[in-house]
C-alpha cells in the first residue's frame, strides 16, 4: 500500500490524495479529490525545470481555447510552492491505457483500432496545427475510456458481438496525456525547428563558464568538488533531455543515430593529453552539446513515426522493433513458455497477434508511410487525417478533425511558443 504524499499547504488545502496513478523517472501522479466540490483530478508532481514550465504554459493555452480539443488532457490548476517542485492538477482521464489493453489480450479488433487511430491522429494533428510537438506518443500515454480493460469487445473483429463492439466504438474516447516533453514552436515550425537546440547550447556554455569560475572553491558541504557537482547536474539534465526525444522504441530513430554520430565524432577529436578529471568533464560537456545539436533536428514528423509505431503495436499486438514471428518465438522460449502457460491458465481468451501482411491494405499503408525511416518521405500527421484508413472510420461523429488539424490550413502558434 502506497503512503499518501505530504503535499505543500496550498495544494493540500484544495486537494486530498486518493491513490497513486503512475510514477516515472521525472514525475509522480496521484488521483486526488477536490475538498470543496468533491470532483476528482490527477495531480502530477514534478521537479521545477524548463520542461515543467513548458508543460504548464502549453496546457494553459490549450485548455483556454474557445473549443478545447476533446482528446487532450486539460489543465485545471498549477501550483509552484517553494519546495522546488511543480504540482499540476489535470482533468482525470478515466479508463485503461492503450498499453494495458494490448497487454491484456494482444491485438485490438480493427473496428476499435480504427476509432482509436482516428482520435489519436486528430488530437496530435490539432497540436501540430498550433505548432506543438508532442514528442512522447506511445500506448502508455493514451487513455481509452468507454469500458473496463477486460471487456471482450476491445479485441473482437465482429460487429455482431451482441452489438457490444459497435456500442463500444461509439462511446470509445481517447485522451492524450503527459505533456511533459511537449514543445511549442514559433512561426513556421519547418523554419523554426532548426533553432530548438540553441537554448540548450547557450545554457551549456553558461555551465562551462560557471565551472571555470568555481575552480578555486575546492569542495561543497557534502565533500564533493564543484566540478563533481557540475558533472552530476549535467548528467541529470542529459538524462532528462534524452528522454525528451520520446520513449526509445517509439522515437524517430534518426534522432538517436544523429546523437550517436555527433558524439562519436566529438570523442574522436578529444585531446588525448587531458588528465582524467578534465577528460571526464569534457566527455559530459561534449555529450550535452551533441544532444543539443541533434535535438535541433526534431521536427513534427517525429510525432508521425511515434504514432505509426503505436498503431502498429495496437493492430499486431507486437511492440516496435521486432517482427511478429520473432516476438512469438521469444515468448515460446522454455522459461518464458512456462510463465506464459501459467498466465494463460488465468485467462479465458488467448492473446492475439497479427502479421502486417494480414492487415487491410489501407491500414498497412498508413503504418508504412508514417514509420518510413527517411523523415523527408514520411507522412505528416496533418496529412494522415485525410488518409483512407482514417477517413473510412464510420464511428466517432464528434468533431476530432478541427480545422487546425487539416493539412494545408495555416498553423496558429501558441503565445508561449519559442524558437530558443
From TrEMBL:
<feature type="region of interest" description="Disordered">
    <location>
        <begin position="204"/>
        <end position="243"/>
    </location>
</feature>
<feature type="domain" description="Protein kinase">
    <location>
        <begin position="15"/>
        <end position="390"/>
    </location>
</feature>
<dbReference type="GO" id="GO:0044773">
    <property type="term" value="P:mitotic DNA damage checkpoint signaling"/>
</dbReference>
<protein>
    <recommendedName>
        <fullName>Protein kinase domain-containing protein</fullName>
    </recommendedName>
</protein>
<dbReference type="Pfam" id="PF00069">
    <property type="entry name" value="Pkinase"/>
</dbReference>
<feature type="binding site">
    <location>
        <position position="44"/>
    </location>
    <ligand>
        <name>ATP</name>
    </ligand>
</feature>
<dbReference type="GO" id="GO:0004674">
    <property type="term" value="F:protein serine/threonine kinase activity"/>
</dbReference>
<keyword id="KW-0547">Nucleotide-binding</keyword>
<dbReference type="InterPro" id="IPR017441">
    <property type="entry name" value="Protein_kinase_ATP_BS"/>
</dbReference>
<dbReference type="GO" id="GO:0005634">
    <property type="term" value="C:nucleus"/>
</dbReference>
<dbReference type="GO" id="GO:0005524">
    <property type="term" value="F:ATP binding"/>
</dbReference>
<keyword id="KW-0067">ATP-binding</keyword>
<feature type="compositionally biased region" description="Basic and acidic residues">
    <location>
        <begin position="204"/>
        <end position="215"/>
    </location>
</feature>
<dbReference type="InterPro" id="IPR011009">
    <property type="entry name" value="Kinase-like_dom_sf"/>
</dbReference>
<dbReference type="InterPro" id="IPR000719">
    <property type="entry name" value="Prot_kinase_dom"/>
</dbReference>
Amino acid at each position: 500500500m502506497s503512503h499518501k504524499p505530504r503535499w505543500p499547504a496550498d495544494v493540500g488545502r484544495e486537494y486530498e490524495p486518493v491513490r497513486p496513478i503512475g510514477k516515472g523517472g521525472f514525475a509522480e501522479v496521484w488521483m486526488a479529490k477536490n475538498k470543496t466540490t468533491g470532483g476528482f483530478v490527477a495531480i502530477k508532481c514534478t521537479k521545477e525545470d524548463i520542461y515543467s514550465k513548458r508543460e504548464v504554459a502549453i496546457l494553459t493555452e490549450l485548455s483556454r481555447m474557445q473549443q478545447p480539443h476533446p482528446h487532450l488532457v486539460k489543465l485545471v490548476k498549477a501550483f509552484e510552492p517553494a519546495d522546488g517542485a511543480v504540482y499540476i492538477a489535470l482533468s482525470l482521464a478515466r479508463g485503461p491505457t492503450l498499453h494495458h489493453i494490448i497487454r491484456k489480450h494482444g491485438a485490438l479488433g480493427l473496428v476499435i483500432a480504427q476509432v482509436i487511430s482516428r482520435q489519436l491522429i486528430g488530437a496530435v494533428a490539432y497540436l501540430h496545427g498550433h505548432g506543438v510537438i508532442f514528442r512522447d506518443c506511445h500506448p502508455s500515454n493514451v487513455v481509452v475510456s468507454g469500458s473496463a480493460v477486460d471487456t471482450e469487445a476491445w479485441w473482437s473483429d465482429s460487429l455482431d458481438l451482441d452489438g457490444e463492439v459497435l456500442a463500444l466504438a461509439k462511446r470509445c474516447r481517447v485522451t492524450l496525456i503527459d505533456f511533459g516533453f511537449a514543445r511549442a514552436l514559433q512561426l513556421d515550425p519547418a523554419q523554426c525547428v532548426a533553432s530548438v537546440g540553441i537554448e540548450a547550447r547557450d545554457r551549456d556554455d553558461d555551465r562551462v563558464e560557471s565551472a571555470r569560475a568555481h575552480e578555486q572553491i575546492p569542495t561543497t558541504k557534502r565533500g564533493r568538488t564543484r566540478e563533481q557537482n557540475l558533472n552530476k547536474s549535467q548528467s541529470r539534465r542529459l538524462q532528462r533531455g534524452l528522454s525528451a526525444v520520446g520513449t526509445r522504441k517509439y522515437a524517430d530513430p534518426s534522432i538517436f543515430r544523429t546523437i550517436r554520430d555527433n558524439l562519436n565524432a566529438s570523442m574522436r577529436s578529444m585531446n588525448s593529453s587531458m588528465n582524467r578529471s578534465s577528460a571526464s568533464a569534457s566527455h559530459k560537456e561534449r555529450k550535452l552539446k551533441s544532444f543539443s545539436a541533434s535535438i535541433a533536428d526534431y521536427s513534427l514528423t517525429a510525432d508521425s513515426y511515434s504514432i505509426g509505431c503505436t498503431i502498429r503495436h495496437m493492430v499486431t499486438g507486437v511492440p516496435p522493433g521486432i517482427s511478429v514471428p520473432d516476438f512469438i518465438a521469444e515468448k515460446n522460449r522454455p522459461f518464458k513458455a512456462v510463465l506464459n502457460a501459467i498466465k494463460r491458465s488465468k485467462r479465458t481468451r488467448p492473446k492475439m497477434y497479427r502479421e502486417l501482411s494480414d492487415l487491410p491494405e489501407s491500414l498497412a499503408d498508413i503504418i508504412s508511410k508514417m514509420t518510413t525511416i527517411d523523415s523527408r518521405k514520411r507522412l505528416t500527421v496533418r496529412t494522415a487525417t485525410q488518409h483512407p484508413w482514417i477517413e473510412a472510420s464510420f464511428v466517432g461523429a464528434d468533431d476530432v478533425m478541427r480545422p487546425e488539424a487539416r493539412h494545408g490550413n495555416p498553423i496558429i502558434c501558441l503565445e508561449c511558443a519559442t524558437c530558443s
